[in-house]
Design brief:
Elements (H helix, E strand, L loop, with lengths): L1 E2 L16 E3 L6 E4 L8 E2 L11 H19 L10 H5 L7 H14 L11 H15 L2 H10 L9 H13 L4 H6 L8 H11 L1 E4 L2 E4 L5 E2 L2 H11 L1 H26 L8 E3 L5 E3 L9 H26 L9 H8 L3 H7 L3 H29 L23 H10 L1
Antiparallel strand pairs: 1-4, 2-3, 3-4, 5-6, 6-7, 8-9
Helix pairs in contact: 3-4, 6-10, 8-10, 10-15, 11-14, 12-13
Length: 402
């Protein structure tokens, strides 16, 4: 097969099949699995036949299978540099493919689902970083050209919106957690709550607000509702969950710094609460920013280490950059950069320090309980006025699950 943009030739040998995969646009076109060029490869055909032979069809299926397996193969997320491999997508992946791959991998490697994996949080972070670059057209173009992740220009607002948005998606993490904090234990209790919201007491009788039916006791009224209003009860239940979900989303947006300037978030009962009065919640935005800053610093130190330690290397780092990264006076950095052995030892020590900081932070977060003791939301009690939180108990449980 001949590439339409570059002088690349792919033989039909079985050993080369893993290098190419079928194009999504045409069954007769192929592209390199690792090729960043927007081109396709036209498969050579025999002029004696318009249709492929059974052997050719089998070979094509074999190629497709090998390419698919290569994409789905497990990679070491802690050391892998290729962002496409981290997400498990081809280089020509469309936005929707990236989104699906990110959702699948983030759920698979989420720390809550891998409590026995000490590296789960780091893996989850690598997946998020890869998606934040590849989902941005400008950053992706720069990465495809240079291989740089461009964390210098990391858009925290964009990342936070993406993080909260993925969390709130239908069928996502929050929906799974919702099942654990339902305001009712079973269908009968849900019907009872629905009935209580739609009846009023008049003298000794109970009166249904929906149809005016008057009955002498709650047991009869419950039977009335079960017979006539099952559909309405189910719809009411969905509304209750959507209200809790909207409240949680409003809270998370304020918590991550992407909410409106009022500093208020919506409560399940429709009222609003001041975020500044909520106690015991962590600064998630600063936490993520510190991880990005540390990743930037670590990458720069590693890059200098790789260049200096390379065989027959003549690379000499910039004095000011070296002083800044290692926290040295410029005079000390100037002397250090001329002594390769000392420089490498100092760089290695800095790398170890950064790794230790990461481990200490991870241990602290674990001791705090994920996002720092959200369980119970100690500062939320009373924010909803005399009537309490109006369903905040369930929301508190949801936040605790985070």
């Amino acid at each position: 097969a001949e590439c339409s943009s570059r002088p690349i030739h792919v033989s039909s040998a079985r050993t080369r099949r893993a290098a190419i995969s079928p194009s999504t646009n045409s069954p007769s076109s192929w592209r390199f699995a690792d090729c960043t060029w927007p081109c396709s490869f036209s498969a050579a055909r025999s002029s004696s036949s318009a249709a492929p032979s059974p052997a050719a069809a089998a070979a094509a299926a074999d190629v497709e299978r090998i390419a698919r397996e290569a994409l789905e193969a497990e990679v070491d997320l802690l050391v892998e540099k290729d962002l496409y491999k981290i997400l498990g997508v081809r280089r020509g992946a469309k936005t929707e493919e990236l989104k699906k791959a990110y959702k699948k991998r983030s759920l698979k490697y989420h720390p809550d689902k891998n409590p026995n994996d000490p590296d789960a949080k780091d893996k989850f972070q690598r997946i998020a970083e890869a998606y934040s670059v590849l989902a941005d057209d400008k950053k992706r173009l720069k990465y495809d050209k240079s291989g740089d992740m461009d964390l210098e220009d990391f858009d925290m607002d964009q990342f936070m919106n993406m993080w909260v948005g993925e969390m709130m998606e239908d069928g996502g993490m929050v929906d799974d957690m919702m099942k654990e904090v339902l305001p009712w234990r079973d269908e009968e209790e849900k019907m009872m709550q629905f009935m209580e919201a739609n009846v009023t007491k008049q003298g000794k009788n109970w009166v249904c607000k929906l149809d005016g039916q008057s009955l002498s006791n709650q047991r009869l009224m419950l039977a009335h509702f079960q017979k006539k209003y099952q559909f309405e009860c189910d719809e009411w239940g969905k509304d209750q969950l959507n209200t809790m979900k909207a409240s949680f989303e409003s809270f998370m947006k304020q918590l991550t710094g992407i909410g409106d300037s009022s500093g208020e978030f919506l409560l399940p009962d429709g009222t609003k609460a001041d975020m500044s009065k909520v106690k015991g919640v962590p600064d998630i935005r600063s936490h993520f920013q510190s991880k990005i800053d540390r990743a930037n610093e670590q990458e720069k130190v590693l890059e200098i280490y790789r260049k200096v330690s390379a065989e027959d290397s003549t690379f000499v780092p910039d004095t000011k950059e070296l002083a800044k990264l290692l926290g040295l006076e410029e005079g000390v950095a100037e002397d250090l950069k001329t002594d390769t052995k000392r420089l490498l030892r100092r760089l290695k020590r800095k790398i170890d320090e950064l790794n230790e900081e990461e481990d200490e932070e991870a241990d602290l977060m674990e001791q705090m309980g994920g996002l720092g003791g959200l369980d119970g939301m100690g500062g939320l009690d009373g924010l909803g006025g005399p009537g309490g939180m109006g369903g905040m108990g369930g929301l508190g449980g949801l936040l605790g699950g985070m």
